[in-house]
Every structure is written in structure tokens, then in C-alpha cells.
């Protein structure tokens, strides 16, 4: 017997230890004015109770109520009290003594998560007034009592009247009810199951206006096709009191409504009847019976007031019960069209309303849509109701699978906007091509005519459209336009490419028929982007890094291959530079010639970039980004061309100008000298030497012609002089014809005219000096050894046009002209042309003065 008692005792101890280990303990601190109650569910955990630890004792019961706002230890003698107990958190709001301001109700969302929770608010206002509940957008939605809310948060509103409590209804979130007003006093309940996070609606409580009905509900009906259900109090049991229930409906403009009574249970009226009073706007009102057809296809705001009769009560006697529905639909006639994309491979459409305040309704295959998307290769019916064209935006996307590199089309493929259905009421605002390459290839983009121009702040695009070129991963390459004065001939991008066309000076892209770009494929490149650039002679070319000015992607690179025309040099300037702080690696900028024979220059982010950089031949510019720690890497460059010959042109022109000037000066000097020489030969035809000082006449011309004067008559002629050329024995210097020179000679006679009128010549005339000086030694113009003893005047040469000209063939003729008066004096004419210059007697004593009678 003793041996059996000990094991039993041990078992009781273990059982007690197990019970102690199964206890659940928590600390609860109620808010001020809040009552927390733990209640045991019916038929659950008969041996489990809730205990409150006090000073020296512990109180346990199936219901535990905490009212004081202080920490309290609550112990449950079971391990899972949430399966057995529920928690109710009650708060009382009394506005009966003083008008209470708006109170926002925010239940604690973190407490008692392991229990099923019920939050209750007891509301009380002054007699004859209504308490008001305002729900934040999007409002509340009324449901049947048997239904449950999707978010497991169910609200219930109860009113306490003299005839007893009445349930206004059950509600969920995300509805059309914005406000509920209830007579005098009532309760709002929120039920949340165990393990569900609390997401309260944070409704507001305030004292409303004077009572006009038992309940007044404000509803904001949704725009477009929608439907909402409403129920009378105590649905479906019924309501017996003679009270009014009112619903105020706000209907959006350009919408119609229709009221349907879905389920109606009439009470047994002892007095009066059940009536439905409608008010449309401010002027129209009418009354209908519940059994009549309710308003259909009406516009504007309206209200419905349901008035109950004095109904008979009883267990099997039904009360007033009504479930009605309000449907809203758009007024007007929609525009309908059909879009067929089955014949255009890879093309899809998107239509979006950009004005949320408009009353536009769009439908795709009779289903209302906020944004219409017509997939590629499908056919769809579209409808537009009250949709202004300026509020709609149509975009199109075309996916093109590029051929493999081995099978690429060398000539390239043109990118043109395909023809869209003309029935579409919306202009095309944007068009996008998605170019997908295979085998890790590269997309080559070129302009179908001219070259591409990258739009930068210093030189923006002003063409009709702009092209946004991006990588499909989202990195923007840049904004380009197809300009005749562009410098970018080709853009090579590694991987897939997105090209978006946006209008600048046009409203509908579907009217653009010309191709925008030409593309092809090539093998994979090492850089992310490579530009082929031919700078313009007319102006600078701007080169911006990808995603300018936001900066290049991390660890990405870009290159520009720049071709310089012959006889030109390039000036490269970095006009705008933003450098990052690198976390790993470095940013690098490299400039080098294409032929790999010149010097390559490289700079990093911690070095200054020289500017300008002069390049004599075609070169490349490469930029690579690091992994930035902070900042970004963005560079804007500018290339200007200068002709090489320009720097030598000034020197050449200067030298040529100097030479030309010297030539002109030399010509002028020569002309002046010859002119003076010719003038001296022409004017100094004779010399008159009186016994006084020498006189050189300025113009020794004859006033008469040869036929009228006797200038050719001589007093005597020396036969040896005139006919010496016929004598072979004559010396050479005499017979050479030095004086006759083969010309007809005149006779000579002494001068008999007046002599006093001839002015005396002065010795100061330097103009007619014929002396030549070598150093300081004076020499006469002619050597005296080759002249006569007495200097004589020379006969000037006569031009062939003169009447005094004689042909040289007269040298064989003999002229004998004799005059009777005067002595014979032999005269010899020299043929030496240099001796025909007039000679003057020198001041030397070795040349005595001579006197002549007549000057020719």
C-alpha cells in the first residue's frame, strides 16, 4: 500500500508543475477612460480562468475587467488563453453636457494580437441631437449581417432608443458612405479576429445637427458604372417603430442613376402606410410607394426618405425590411471604334486619360478601363464617353527582333511609324521601337539622310521631332534629332535598344511618313556606346556623355571616333565637367590618334583636364566611369575645326604684298627715269650759245614747217664732210657717216636775226647739267678726244612721221646746195645717237666759247 502512495504523490507534484508551466502571464495598462475586459467564450476551457494580481492576493474569474489606468499583471492558468478568452476594449464618449469637438478614434493596433478583439465606442449627445460619424476616403460599405469583410474588419452601429436597441447595420471599408448620423445615443463596434493586424479606419466623432430622422446616411456614388446596396435597421428581422430613415446621394456630373428595390418586406400597419419620399435637387420632390417602380435613368443628386408606419408587433409578425440598390451609369452616347493589330507584327497601343478630373470613360471590349492597353496581334473594340481629345494620350510600341550578326542586312532597316487605324479619335503622341538583338550583338543607328545631332543646352534640337535613345535596362543614351547639320554619323550601342519619338512642332506623329532612323547589327563592342563623328566645318560639334547631365552609369564606358578632314586641325575643349568621388577604380579620359602612331594622353578624376587639345589628324576620345562613392561623372565636350593653311596665309599674303610693293616702286622709278630721259631728248633739240652765258631753250621747235623756212639752207658746205662717205680713202672715223648717218642734211648759213632778245643763261641751273661725276673728279659728258676742237650743236633725230624725215637710202645721193652769201664753213653730222644729246661749254678754260649765227 505504501509503495503505491509514493508514485501517486509524485504524479500530483508533476501535474502541479505542469499546470504551473502552462500558465500565461501578461501586463495590461488600460488607457484613461478605457475599460479592458477579458471574457471566456461559452463552452471553452472550463478549467482556465483569468487572474489579476493585487497587493497580496490574486482574484481569478471567467470575466476579468480592468478599469484603472495603471499597469496590472494578468495571469491565465492555461497556455493558450487566446483560444478561450476574448478581449473587449471599451471607450465612452459623452457629448451631452458640453458640445464635444471632433474626436479621432485610433485603436491601439499592437495590443492583444493573440486574442479576438472587439473595440467599442459608446456615444452620447444631448437629447434631440444626433451624433455624427465621419469616415475617411474611400468611406464605408454596408453589408448583410451574414456577410464578412475582406480585410476581416467589421463595423457595427447600434442605436439605443426607448423602444429598445436597433442595429443600424454592418459595414466594411472601401465604400461610398462618407457619414452616418444617429439619434441621441449609440455604440460603434469594430471586431477583429485573432492574429489579424489591426487596420482601423480612424473615423471621427462629433455632435451633429438636430434630429430629423432616426438615421441619416450620406453617400458619394462612384463615377461611371457602379452599384451600391443599402439596408434598413434590423435587417432582415424588420423594424417596427414609426421612424424615418434617410439616405442622401451625391451623383457625379454626367452620370445617371436608377433605384431598384431588391427585397422588400411590408409590415402590418396599424396606422398610416410606408411611404418613399424623393427629392431631386432643390425643387423636384415626389412620393412613391415601396411597391411602385422607383426612379429610373435620372440625373443629379437626390435623397430618399423611408417612413415606417405604426406596425404591429409579434413573434411571427414581420416588421419593415428593405434592401435596395442604386446603380450609376454614364449618360450620353459613347464613341466606338475597332482596332486590329493582327497585321502589324509586334505593335501594341496604349491610351491613357491624363486629366483625372474629367468625366471621361474608356472601355476595352465593353469593360471600363482606367488605361486601355491593346496587346500586339489582337483585335479590340474601344469606346470613349465624354473624353476630350486633349485629355487623351495615345502611345504605340513596336518590338523588333533584330537578325543575328551573321545574317544582318548590310543596307540597314528603316524605322518608320506604321499606319494606324484611322478611326482612332486620339492623335499619336509617342512611338517607341524596342530593338532586341541576338548573340550579344550591337545595334548600329544611323540617320537615313544627313547625320544625327545630339541635343545639349548649348545647341538644342529645333526639328519637328526628337529621338530619345536608351538602353532597355533604363539608361538614357541621349536626346537626338535628325539634322542636316549634325555631326554624329553612327551610334553603336551594345545590347538591346529603346528608341522613342516625341513631337516638337507636330501634334500627330502618325502623319510623319518619312523614316527616322536606319539600323543594323554588328558584332559586340567593348564599350557601352561608340559614336562615329564627322565634325562640321561651319560650327562646333558638341559631345555629351550618356545620360547627360545626370551622369554615366557605374563602370560604363563610351568612345567617340572623330574623323578630321584633310588640311584641317581639331580643337577639343571640355566645356563642362562633373567629377565623382570614386569608391573603386578611377574615371579615365583618353585621347589618342586613330593610326596608333601618335602620343596618347590620359587623365583621371583626380587630375585637371587640359583645354584646349589640338589634334592634327583623326583621333578617338574614350571616357570610362568608376564605381562612384559620391557624385557623378558627366562631361560635355566641344570640337571645332580650323584650316591649317590659315595660319600661313597671313605670312604668304604679307610677303606677296611686300614683293608687289617693291615691284610697283621699281616700275615707278624706271618709268620716271625713262620719262625724264625721253623728255630731255625731246626738248633739248638745239642749243643757242651766245657770247655771254650759256642758254638752254626749253622748247627748240620751229614755228614754221620745213617748206616755209630756210632752216635747211647753209652758207657753205664742206665737201669732205658731206661726201666723205663716198671716198674710200677717207678715215674710218670720218667716213663712217657719223654726221650724216644716211639722212638728208641741210645747208647752213650764218644767223642774221636779232640777238638782244635772247636772255642770258645763269650758271645756277642744275636741272640741265649734263656733267657726270665719279667721286670728286669732274668729267665732261663727252670725251674731248672724240669731238671736234670746237663743240657744235647736234642735229636731232626726226621721226618718220615728220615732213623732215629722209629715207636712209638717200645716202648714195649727193646734195649740193649753195647760197651766195657768207663764208664756207664745213659742218659734220654724227650718226652716233648718244652724241645727239645737247652739249654745253664747260666752265673750264680748255673749252673756249663758240659763237654761231643760227640754231636749228
From TrEMBL:
Pfam families in UniProt: CDCP1_CUB_6, CUB_CDCP1_1, CUB_CDCP1_2
Domain CDCP1 third and sixth CUB span(s) in chain numbering: 225-317, 527-639
Record's signal peptide: 1-23
Compositional bias annotation for Acidic residues: 842-856
Domain CDCP1 second and fifth CUB: 103-207, 422-511
Keyword annotations from UniProtKB, A to Z: Membrane, Signal, Transmembrane, Transmembrane helix
Region described as Disordered: spans on this chain: 830-856
Domain CDCP1 first CUB: 25-95
Membrane-crossing residue ranges in chain numbering: 648-673
Descriptive protein name: CUB domain-containing protein 1-like
Lineage, highest ranks first: Eukaryota, Metazoa, Chordata, Craniata, Vertebrata
